[in-house]
Amino acid sequence: MIILWYIALTVLLFYGAKPCKKNTWNEENMSLGQTKAFLGFCAIIVIFHHMAQFTCASWLNPKYIRHGLDIFLTAGYPMVGVFFFCSGFGLYKSAKTKPDFFKRFLPVKILPILFSTMLTTVVFIFFRLWRNIPLTIDSPVKVNGHDNWHPSIWFIPAIIVMYIFFYIGFGLFKKDWIGILIVALGTLGYIGFCIRFGYGRWWINTVHMFLAGILLAKYEDRVFESCKKYYVLKLIIIIILCLVFYNLGNYKGGLYHFEVLYTLVFMSMYYLISMKLKIGNRALGFLGKITLEIYVTHVIFLHMFGYYMIHDGIKPVYYIENVSLYVLVCLALTIPVSYAISLADKKIGNALKQKGGAYEEAAIQRKYE
Question: Do 307 and 319 meet the contact criterion of CB atoms below 8 Å apart?
C-alpha cells in the first residue's frame, strides 16, 4: 500500500502543472505563487523524511525497522536548503520594493516564529514530564543533537540568525555589497561556531543557501537570460552533478562538504526545470502558506505514534506499526493543527501591524520559508 503515497506525492506536485511551449519560458519561475507551491511540496517531503527516520533508518532497533520510505532518508536537507534559499531571495526582493520593509523588521519576522516554536515545545516538555524524561541543559552553547526539548528546533535559531545578519547587512547599510559581505561573513561565523561546538551536520549543510538566494535575487534577470543559452546542455550537466554529489554526500563517506554542494546543484536543477514548467494547484498553495507551522508541528505526531517517544524505549501514545497507516495519521493530524497555529500567527501579526509594524509585507515574504 505504501506505493499509493508515492503516487499521491507525484500527483500533488504535478497536478495543474503547465509546461512551456517551444521557445517560450516561465518568466515567473521565482514568483511568490510558484515558490509557495514548491515550498508546500518541500514541507511534505520533510515530513516523509522524518517518518523514514522513525521507520527504516539503519540506526533504529532492528525489531522495529519497517521498509517503504527508504528513499526519503536522505531527502530532508535539500528541501531545507530550498527553504533557506527562498527566504533569502524573498527578503532581498522585499527590501528593494517595500520602502518601510525594515520598520520593526525583527519583531515582525521573529515573533510569529517563536510563538509556533514555543507552543510546540510546550507539548514536548509535557511529553517529557509525562514519561519522566529529564529536562536537562548541558550548556547554553551545546544545543546540538536530536535530544533537544523540541526535536526539530535547530532550524529556528538558524533562520533567526540569518534574519539578524540580513537586517544588519541590508537594513543598517545601504550598499548591497556590504549587505552581501555581512551575510557571507556571518554565515561563515555561524558554521564555524557549529563546527567548534560539535553540532550535527544538519546545522551547517544548508544555511549557505540563504546567501545563494540573495545573490540570485540581485542578479535574477542576468541569471535567467544566461540560463536560456544552451539550456538543455546546462540542465543535463546539472542533473549529472546532482547524481554525483548526492552519492558523494550520502553514500561515499558522507562528507557534509558534498552535501553543501548537493544543495546548490539541487536548487539549480529546480531553477532550470521551473524555467520550462509552471507548477501550482490549490493543495500546494494551501500547504505553502503553513510551511513553518508544518515544520514545528509534524514531529509531535511522529513521536506520538512511532515505536518510541523522544528516547528509544519510551512508550509512545500509541504505536502504529503499519507504515501506510502511520503516514496517514501523521499527515491527517499535522495539516489541520498546523493551519490552526497559522491562524494564531496571523493574529500576532495583526497586533504587530496595529503597533506600526510592516507586518503585511513581511508576512507575505515569510511564506517563502
Answer: yes
pLDDT in tens, 185-236: 999 999 999 888 888 888 999 999 999 999 999 999 999 999 999 999 999 9
pLDDT tens figures, 295-351: 999 999 999 999 999 888 899 999 999 999 999 999 999 999 999 999 988 777 667
Indicate if the alpha-carbon torsion angle 93, 94, 100, 103 is positive or negative: negative
Q: Which of 145, 147, 143, 149 is nearest to 120 (CA)?
A: 149
* CB proximity list for 352: less than 8 A, separation 6 or greater: 104, 107, 108, 111, 359
Q: For residues 54 and 126, is the Cβ–Cβ distance under 8 A? A: no
pLDDT digits over 165-187, tens only? Answer: 999 999 999 899 999 999 999 99
Grid cell locating 79: 528541501
Block residue for cell numbers 514545528:
296
All cell numbers assigned to 223: 541569471
**pTM score of the predicted model:** 0.92
* Structure-block grid coordinates of residue 289: 502558506
Q: And the C-alpha cell for 17?
A: 502543472
